[in-house]
Design brief:
Elements (H helix, E strand, L loop, with lengths): L17 H4 L5 H20 L4 H8 L3 H8 L8 H10 L28
Helix pairs in contact: 2-5, 3-4
């Protein structure tokens, strides 16, 4: 069953970046960090690690792992998040490509075998 949109409320399609949709500064950076943290969370789940075990691997405290996985990653730099991926046994490659147009470049995270 489809729910009706309340009268007077405007519904807009997402740009794909919730941080940009909310008008937050540094939206691309926030989205990139969120994607990296999501990847960290996926690795921890796939390995069936408890937060205490993950904390030991990552060099963090268990409460810090908990906060990170709940989305509190504002204080983490991109470099630090990438280092956490490396501590989980993943290579991180940064690829810089020139665009064939005048558009602004984009930042993205892609796991091997995914676009």
């Amino acid at each position: 069953m489809r729910s009706a949109t309340p009268v007077g409320q405007i519904v807009r399609r997402s740009s794909g970046n919730v941080f940009a949709d909310l008008g937050l500064p540094d939206a691309n950076s926030h989205m990139l960090k969120a994607e990296i943290v999501s990847r960290i969370d996926k690795i921890i789940r796939e390995r069936k690690l408890k937060q205490v075990e993950a904390a030991k691997l990552l060099g963090l405290s268990q409460p810090d792992v908990s906060r990170l996985l709940r989305g509190s990653f504002r204080e983490y730099s991109l470099e630090r998040l990438l280092r956490l991926l490396a501590r989980l046994g993943h290579d991180v490659d940064i690829v810089i490509r020139e665009l064939n147009s005048e558009q602004t470049g984009r930042l993205k995270v892609a796991a091997q075998g995914t676009p």
